[in-house]
Structure formats: structure tokens, C-alpha cells
Amino acid sequence: MSKLKAKKNRTVALLLLICVFPTFFSGCWSYQEVDETGFILFLGLDRGVENKLTWSAQVAKPRAIVGAAGGNGGMGSPENDGQSIANVSVEAPTFTAAMTMMNIFLDRRLSLKHLKVIVFSEELAREGMMTYLGVMGRYPEFRRSVIVAVCRGITARELLENNNQVLEVNPAKHAEMVTAFAQYTGFIPAQPQFHYFYNDAKADDADPICLMVGLRRETPQGEGPPVTGEEWVSEGAYYAGELPRSGGNNVELIGAAVFQNDRYVGDINGDQMTGLMLIRGTFDETNLSVEDPFDPSKMLAFNLTAYRSPQFQVDLSGPVPRIHIIVRLHGTLLGNQNLSVDFEEESNRLILEAIINQQLEGFMADIIDRAQNEFQADILHLGKIVKHKFLTIQQWREYDWLGTQFPQAIITAEARTRIRYFGLLHETAPLATR
Amino acid sequence: MIQQGKIGPREAMSIITIMISVNALLSGAIAADYALHAGWLAIIVAGGLAALGTLFSARLMAHYPDKGLIGVGQEVLGPTGGFCIGLLYFNLFLLASALFLRLEADRIALVYLPDTPAPVLALFMTLAGLGGAYLGLEALGRTSLVFSSVVIGGLLLPLFMSANFWNWNNLFPLLGTGISDIIKGGLSLHGLFSEIIILAVFYSSIKISSSPMSLWYQPLLIGLLVNVIAALITLLVFSVPAITENIFPVVQTSRLIYLGRFFQRIDAFFAFFWMIAICLKFIILFFTSNVILAELLKLPYYKPFIVPLGIIVFSLAFLPSDLNQATHLATHMAWRWSGIIAFLLPAVMLIICQLKQPKKQTKQSGKGKGKQDE
Hints:
The structure holds two protein chains of two kinds. In chain A, about 35% of the residues lie in helices and about 25% in strands. By secondary structure, chain A is α/β, with parallel strands linked by helices. Chain A has two domains: about 35-220 and about 235-270, no CATH class; about 280-434, Nutrient germinant receptor protein C, domain 3 (GMP Synthetase, Chain A, domain 3). In chain A, the strands form two sheets. In chain A, strands 1, 2, 3, 4, 5, 6, 7, 8 and 9 form a nine-stranded mixed sheet that branches. In chain A, α10 (about 270-280) crosses α11. Chain A starts with a helix and ends in a 13-residue tail after the last strand. The radius of gyration of chain B is 22 Å and the shape is globular. Chain B has a single domain, classed as Amino acid/polyamine transporter I (Up-down Bundle), CATH 1.20.1740.10. Chain B is mostly helical. Chains A and B meet through α1, α9 and α13 of A and α4, α5, α9 and α10 of B.
């Protein structure tokens, strides 16, 4: 009996081996040595001067990355000049031609398998990004998880050449980490991948956005337009390349580039991005500064987290669609400059909630207005909600959401924040009086 | 009758489960071609039609528990009719194995082994087919039993792991291009489940349990579920129209998996299981065509056919000019028409069988009466 069983097991094992071996044998054919491959991590596309396209790439130097992570950094060695990446650029007629041309002057076969970010110049983005992204949709090496960005005010080549990493030596990790900040800041798109851009650009219920990146401004910190008196500028009121700062990475990520189908039509700042994420339901967490309602010269700081998915009330019975959006958040009071008010009291808490709601509603109203009137692009993704009311695609297409209905829809947004925590304090004691 | 080992009902069900489930690698995108957002509903309709068709096969085979489909054809339709029907089934499986070989060799080469020429991959798959067919039904049944849960897991797990890319709004408008297109899609896709007829081919080699209906409907139901889930999830990930232009919906979804920095790019792990499933399906298709030919010629062995048929399948595989043509042939020709051969012919045979039986019974009762009179 056991002999019979052993024989049967052998047969099964043999058949499994037979099933597996085709892949192993042919795998030898498709082998690619890691130390003979140049992995492109960042890619930049500009309108070319000597040819149709300027194709710039940052190719990883794995030994420098590993060396730096190990401690010696490989810094200063003749092999890698202290950089974990090599910047190369070529003028080419097409995307794939550029890769071929690069192998004329690079000693490793280039691969897009580990590509993290692709940056377009504003000029190319205005012409329509699908001209190039379409190629990438077909290219087997290209993954849909690649992050898409538009660079503001400079060429993609300049951006890549100035793309330093101050705190992180691994460029791939750097790319993943800076784009993951959407989760904590609410200033950049939470879904910056090519996958979302491609889907939205082709869809008849939405328009896409992507990351907006810029190089640090030339004006030194403290030499920009000053604020006076009770004036203040919200932390998200900036566009990429406008932050008053010094030190850190040269490249800034804030706000987003807005598209109508695949054509770049404008950009939004960090605050509007927060409003957009609240409406889309991709908002996770942010810190918000608001003016103290009891003393306008002072500020309050809150941490806000999404509590529930946004709620949509859609009414299509009138001549124009009416949509009301309700977003719900939980807040934590993190900082108060005013020590004379007990913010933890119920009546004061309600006042704080109202002022937070007012500010968030302002962000949302801004982005709704710009999306409808300036961009005429449904970056709010309301079409995805409105189409629930339709049974067939024919009815939906006849409704002509993007072309006719969205720009004239009456869209209102309401924020409902509940302050749940007050940090580590449960009351505010005033300063001692003299 | 061919002398080959017997397999139990679980092994037989596993074979069919793998055969139908592997179709999920492609069915989501093709179903969306027919009904857009309601592609998954079209697959359910196709499954319903297949279930109806399977009922005829099950009833027919229940009349002849000691015969395979080819033998039943010869019994019901006579030598000439039976031969023609057998020839039809032989061609169906031969062409199906050739088309499947080409399609999957091209697809694997395109995504995972870009420097390997597809014919090299097809050659190794054919060699695997020869080896697998040589080992016979018992080995195939056991291997399928071992691997069926792994194949289903390998297909569904990466889809569920892409949950952070799901957008439920992609399902709307719920009826897609409309009810008529869902039904049309169902009619055009019922061939997705035509491989269930393999049960009828090997019916005499299966130890039938007390509930023969579960032999037919259990693998059909599991296969249907796998296909519907795959179609649904790929639609949740790729909105219309992106889903319709994609010929690797499951692969592309798996390539998206990102569960934190550490847990990404794991599609290559699943690709290993997909390739085994693909290879297993090819071997079963190829083996079935060998057995049908042997039964058609009333030979007690099929092994002499393995090498010549292998050469024929390999040659036929390269008749389609490119992957797109092979995909079109598989999805818009084979899936559309193979169901008719798989489900309609058994229904016709069942009707003829039912018509013949009363005559037989009358004759027998007549004879009995005569004897009594004497």
C-alpha cells in the first residue's frame, strides 16, 4: 500500500516538475544581470530643441546606494563621484528611441523596471500627456504604479539635475517617501500614480490631476513680500517653487497639476489640494492653522483626520444638477497662542469647530469654483457619484456630464468637524497676573 | 476502450476547476468588451447558460455510465454519425490546445520573459504536454487535485491584495451597455465553461460517487465564481474604458500591489503559479485530444499519437499571425462557438437517446409479450 502511494506521489512530483521546467529553461534565455543593467529611477520629458523630445534620466548607481547605506557612502571614490545616481539626457524623436540612443553612450542596458517617477515639463503637459503616457501603457517594463508629475517653471531636465536628497541616500526610497506625505500633509495628491492618471484621463466621469513639483525659489528666505499686523499666510497657500524656506531638498512638492482629459490646464495650491482631497474622499490627515476667534492676532493649530467617507446628496430633478457634499472630520487641538481662553469648554469648542469648518469650506469652495469655472474639469470626481443615478452607459453619455452638466452644476460643500481631543491638557490655565 | 487508470470524482472536479479558472486571466477584459461595466453580469449569464448545457451532458452520460462521450456518440448516432461527432470533438480539443499554447506562450514571453522567443517557450510547453500526456489521466487527476486550491489562490489572492486600488464607483452604471448586451455577452462567453465537457470524455474513467450531479456542478460553480470575482475586481481597479484595452487584467492588477514599501512587486511570485496552471491546462487539453483520437479510431491505446499530435499542435499554434489575432480567435471565436459544440451536441444526443429508448423499451416489452404468449 505504501509502495503504491509512493509511486503515486512520484508521478505527481514528476508531472509538477514537467509543468515547471518550461519556465526555468526559457528563463535562462531572458536573464538580465543586475550589475549589467542601468535602472532608471527618475525620468524627465521636455519638448526637444534638436529633436522632438528631450529625454532625461536619473540612472541608479547601486554600489553607491549600498555603500552610502552601509556607512562609507562610497563618497569621493573615483567610481561614483559621491552620487547615488547619474544624470543623462538625450534629444530623441520618440520615447523608445531615446532609450536606444542612451545605450550609445552608456555602458549598461537601460531598464524601466524600477522607474519611480516620470516628470513632464509644463509645455509638454499642455500639449497632452497621453502622447507619451500611452507609450508607457504598452511598454511591458513600465508599471502603472509609477508616479506622474509636472514641473513648474523649469524644464524636467533642470529639475532632475537639481534633484538632491538631503536626508535619504536611496533615491527610490526618497521618491516613495516624499509622495507618501499626502497622507500626513494633505497638500499633494494621494493617488499620484500613472494608473489613476490613465484611468481618469480616459474616463467620461472624471478628469485627472498629478503631482506638481518645482525647484526652490531664487529669492532667499525672508526677502519675499512681508506680512503686516494680523496678516498671515496659510501653510498650504503656496505653489511648488514658492515656499519661503532654506535648506532641505531642492525640489518641492505641493499642490497639483490639473488636467482636462490629458491636457494640463492649471495648478492648485496646497490648501485647494486639501479641499479636493476632502471632496474626493482621499483625505487622511493634516495640520491646520486657523485664526483665533477670540483674538485675531493669535493663531490656533489643529490636527485633523478624516472620520468618515464624504456623503453626497445628488439631485438631478432640476434644470441643473445640484450636489451637496458633507465631509466629517475629527480634530485635535495641538497649539494655542492665546492662554486667556479655556478652549476645552463646550461653548468654546463649538466656536472652534465652526471656525475650522469655515476654513475647510473655504478650501472646498475655492477648488469647486476653480474646477467648474477656470479648469472646466471634473477633478472633484463628482461624475463618479452622479453616474450612480444612471442605469446604462447610453443614458450617462447622453447626459454629457463633463461637457454640459458639470460646469453648470450647483455644488456646495459642508464640513462637520468634531474636536475630540485637546492634546495632553484638559484645561487652559491663564498666566499669573502681576 | 482505452485502458487507463481510474480517477475519483475529486480529481475529475479538480481538473475542470483548473481548466475553467485559468480563463479568469483574460475573461474580465473580454467580458467588459461586451457589456462594459456589466461585464461581470455577462459572465454570470454565461455561467447560467453553461449550467443549463451541462444538465444535458449530465443526463446523457447518466444513461451510459461505462462509456465516454465518443463511445456514447457512436452508440446514439451510429458508427458514421458517431465518427463525425468524435471528429468534431477531436478538432475542438486539438485546435483549443494549439490556440492556448500560442496565446499563453506569447503572453508569458511578452510580460515576464521578453527576451525569450515565444516559439522557444511554446516548444518547452509542448514538451511538457508530451510528458504529461504520457503519464496519463491518473497523474493529471492527482496533480490537479494537489494544485487546484493553489491555482485558485494564486489567481484570487493577488486580486484581493490590490484592495487599496479598488474604486466601487467603477461598477456604475450598473447595467453597462444594457440588458440586451449583457445577454449577448453571456451568449458569446458561454464557451468560457465549455471545458466541462472533458468530464464527459473521461466519464467511464471516473469513479462516480453517489451524487453524480455535484461532479458536474461543483467545478462549474467554482470556476464561475473565480471568473466573476476576477472580472469584478479588475473592473474595480481599471475603470471603463481602461479595462477594455487591457489584455492582461489580472497580471496588471497584480503588478499594482503596493502594501507598504516592503510589500510590493510581488506579482513575480504569483506568476510562478499562473505558469504552472497554464501548463497544466495545456497538458489536459492536449491529452484529451489524444484520447479522443484513440477512441475515435477504436484503439485501446493513445500513446503512439502523442508525438505526432504534439508536432501538429506546435505547428498549428503558429498559424495566427500575432498575439492580437490569437487573442481574438480564443476569445471571440473559441469562447463563442466552442460552447455550442460542448453543450448543444450533447443536448441533441440526449434527445435522440430519449427518442430511441422508448422504441427499445417497446421492442423489449413486445418481445417479452411474445414469449409470454408462446
